[in-house]
């Protein structure tokens, strides 16, 4: 697997507005060799995934206390080796596993106290929406084995809350984070349409 990217950042309105436009190249090659039982020959199969993703992040600093961010990305998630090849025990291989392709939209707000204060704190909340093609997930089978497979179409809605405080006790920083995500299978065709 190989992922490359390039971005262009523009700082506007005396640093209050920042725009980051980026492009990523996703590439993966999967090659397997399997001995043919009863012969000295080897069966070779190979496949490649190659695609371009892109996105744009927009950040606006309303003040030194409040920042808002809006981002969109067309992204891929390449299957991991353990998702493709299994674990050799309870998870069997799926050499036809496709990459996830998704449209991701995120909106967040960050509230923080001024840097002049002895006690520093920051609160952040974010909402996300994903429309995903070929969502990778683990399917349990009846014979105690499982395999990773793709759902044709799925959506995900999430919310994240985070906070951080430092300066209460010298050398101590406390961070808290909570994330909720709801995935929904909305495939109209394929094995998981039912």
Average per-residue pLDDT, rounded, comes to 92
Tell me what portion of residues adopts beta-strand conformation: over 45%
List how many beta strands DSSP finds.
9
Structural class: mainly beta
Terminal CA distance reads 33 Å
Explained architecture:
The protein is mostly beta strands. About 5% of the residues lie in helices and about 70% in strands. It has 1 helix and 9 strands; from the N terminus they run E-E-E-E-H-E-E-E-E-E. The chain has one helix at about 80-85; strands spanning about 1-10, 15-35, 40-60, 65-75, 90, 100-110, 120-140, 145-165, 175-185. Strands 1, 2, 3, 4, 5, 6, 7, 8 and 9 form a 9-stranded mixed sheet that branches. The chain starts with a strand and ends in a 9-residue tail after the last strand. The model has no long low-confidence stretch (mean pLDDT about 90).
Give a nutshell description of this structure.
With about 190 residues, the protein is mainly beta.
List keywords for this structure.
single chain; 194 residues; mainly beta; nine-stranded mixed beta sheet; 1 helix; 3% helix
Please describe the topology of this protein.
Blueprint: E1 2-12, E2 17-35, E3 42-61, E4 66-77, H1 81-85, E5 91-92, E6 100-112, E7 120-140, E8 146-166, E9 173-185
Parallel strand pairs: 5-8
Antiparallel strand pairs: 1-2, 2-3, 3-4, 4-6, 6-7, 7-8, 8-9
